[in-house]
Design goal:
It is built from 13 helices and nine strands. It is α/β, with parallel strands linked by helices. The strands form two sheets. Strands 1, 2, 3, 4, 5 and 6 form a six-stranded parallel β-sheet that branches. It has a three-stranded parallel β-sheet with strand order 7-8-9. β4, α6 and β5 form a beta-alpha-beta unit.
């Protein structure tokens, strides 16, 4: 694929908007993507989005599979009423959607809970369009341990990948799915990096050297990810951008981006904004700590700043080209 095609993609590698699509359709809403999300994404210039399938705590474990399928079903029904969006299964489909003025949506499992411990289900989700696999959210599942949000993680969450987790990684790679290590604990990261043979991503993580949260990556981890050809998406959740609330700002997030670019190269940085405060479904769960109130705000105060502060080629790579290059390599083109 040409560099020009990648330059036309502005991609946010992590959004939980499926939770709102499901909630609002259950209330009788229609065309949720078109009516609720399209204007903000257009204003920000975003034309590609990775949509996570996140399972809230009270549905784990018994309701995880049902809820994941409900989220996919709600999305596919809503797409019939939202012609500005397209579900994509490869980088090639994304480029075609962009050429037609559509916003591309990729599906990602945020945690392996919907799979239980049945590896055959991964093929089912792949058939439904899921192309990324986050092994963990910040809790234990049958595949691995998630990273704690606390500065000192409990010893009970220090396990590495399980046999099932290693089987999932192998099957995901065979299917052409991108592995995401955001929310995976340090031991799991170490093992994953040893056994995987294709680039992997941290869709929404910042730099632990700047903000000492276990949810961020150490410089050692960032180096390993970069050496593998991976990409890390900058997370706009305030607690991962700065430890002190008063310092949580666009400048703080830009500092994380600058740290990645300076130490590991611009080819390994991207956007993974993880905006939760704007989602009705997460009201009362989100801590109200996002740096930006929505994608339009992120466009004005972060995306535009990236464009102003860097060369055209470097900005295009960070804003979407890097993730798309990786998707080209790992995902199998369906066309």
């Amino acid at each position: 694929m040409t560099d020009r095609a990648r330059e036309n993609i502005v991609l946010d590698a992590h959004s939980d908007l499926l939770l709102d699509v499901l909630l609002m359709r259950r209330r009788g809403g229609r065309g949720i993507l078109e009516g609720r999300f399209l204007p903000k994404l257009r204003e920000a210039g975003i034309n590609a989005l990775v949509c996570s399938i996140y399972i809230v705590e009270e549905l784990v474990p018994e309701g995880a599979l049902r809820n994941a399928l409900d989220q996919i079903s709600a999305l596919k029904t809503d797409l019939e009423e939202s012609p500005s969006f397209r579900l994509c299964r490869s980088a090639g489909e994304c480029y075609k959607a962009a050429a037609q003025g559509q916003i591309s949506l990729f599906l990602s499992l945020e945690g392996a809970e919907p799979l239980g411990r049945d590896p055959l289900l991964l093929r089912v989700f792949h058939e439904l369009g899921v192309r990324l696999l986050g092994l963990a959210w910040s809790r234990r599942n049958y595949a691995c341990d998630g990273i704690s949000f606390e500065e000192a993680a409990p010893y009970s969450s220090a396990g590495s990948l399980t046999d099932f987790g290693r089987e999932l990684v192998a099957e995901a790679c065979r299917l052409g799915m991108v592995i995401d290590v955001s929310h995976l604990n340090d031991a799991g990261f170490r093992e994953l990096s040893r056994i995987i043979r294709v680039p992997f991503i941290a869709s929404h993580s910042n730099c632990r050297a700047l903000t000492n949260s276990p949810r961020n990556l150490t410089d050692e981890q960032l180096g390993v990810l970069a050496a593998a050809g991976g990409v890390v998406g900058m997370n706009a959740c305030g607690q991962f951008a700065a430890e002190r609330r008063e310092e949580r700002s666009p400048a703080a997030l830009l500092a994380h981006l600058d740290h990645v670019v300076k130490n590991f190269g611009a080819a390994h940085a991207g956007l993974g904004l993880d905006l939760c405060d704007c989602l009705e479904s997460l009201a009362g769960i989100s801590d109200g700590g996002d740096i930006f109130k929505d994608h339009a705000d992120a466009g004005r105060r972060f995306i535009d700043e990236i464009k102003r502060g860097r060369s055209e080629d470097e900005a295009a790579a960070i804003l979407g080209g890097n993730f798309m290059r990786l998707f080209e390599r790992v995902m199998k083109d369906e066309q």
